[in-house]
């Protein structure tokens, strides 16, 4: 079921992106031939509205907007024949919608709960046959103390555990209305990606804020995350060629996105949120990432098209159709290669 939610979330982000292009094109009277849900081959035409065919296509991920064109004439389609300002706004509308989705989702979270604050540590997963499972620890337990020493942040918890590797320690947890003392022996040499106790934890808590503060923080968080994403490739190149510290983070493919979102679904179900805060937060980050990626000046992406539009505006001449198609095709090939590399890396042993 989580896989279905994941595919629906990604598809919705892509469709809303395309809807941004579509609505802006309608705003400027640019004729649109088709709004496709999914990618061809076409399965059916759902309906026609204002001369636009809304179609359902076989490949369920994403969608597209096709401006009107004359197949018998080797010339630009209706969008590329529009004034450059209109072209620019239509192309930019898709990524802007994705950034706005990030603001809206984060704003809803902060309005409902407040700003994130590290007030307690929640266990959200216990590895099978781990010391924590043998001691009776369960998902949803709140870790209060280790050997009587209070724990309020993840760093303190890790430090206290490392000091007690290989010997019994008393872990105090709150489970519902109960407070329990569990005897745990943390492993010195745990299996990969499990940790000494075999638990996955997260800092949890909220600080209530006003409506204005919540939405201001949502805007700021979106801007900071977008800037970090946009500057990431530059920082990677600097680290490679100048010896500067490598930035934290990495590019993830569909497996990484699915794993992260599945974990967020599990956490929200565990905590019983009336609004799925962790799922919404991750979907917001994915939407912002999608918007920033599309603004990169790479042919076949919206950012590449924006560069072409601005270049034509400055030079006061249009690229020949064949040249434009060749550039976009090369950009598409590069993107497909990059996607294959990123996704293969997640499946192949490191």
Notes on the structure:
With 350 residues, this protein is an alpha+beta fold. The protein has a domain at 118-207: PDZ domain (Pdz3 Domain). Helix content is 51%, strand content 22%. The chain has nine helices and eight strands. Strands 3, 4, 5, 6, 7 and 8 form a six-stranded antiparallel beta sheet that branches. Strands 1-2 form a two-stranded antiparallel sheet. A hairpin with a 2-residue loop joins strand 6 and strand 7. Helix 2 runs antiparallel to helix 7 (277-294). The protein is elongated, with a radius of gyration of 25 Å. The model has no long low-confidence stretch (mean pLDDT 85).
Describe the structure concisely for a colleague.
This protein is of the alpha+beta class and 350 residues long. It has nine helices and eight strands.
- Which percent range fits the helix content? 40-55%
**Top-tier CATH class of the domain at 118-207:** Mainly Beta
* SSE succession: HEEHEHEEHEEEHHHHH
Report, as a whole number of angstroms, the end-to-end distance: 29 Å
Q: Which ranges are low-confidence, i.e. pLDDT below 50, for 5 or more consecutive residues?
A: none
Q: Provide mean pLDDT, rounded.
A: 85
Shape: elongated
Gyration radius over CA: 25 Å
| Total helical segments | 9
Q: Structural class, please?
A: alpha+beta
CATH H-level superfamily title of the domain at 118-207: PDZ domain
Major sheet: 6 strands, antiparallel
* CATH architectural category of the domain at 118-207: Roll
The oligomeric state is single chain
Total beta strand runs: 8
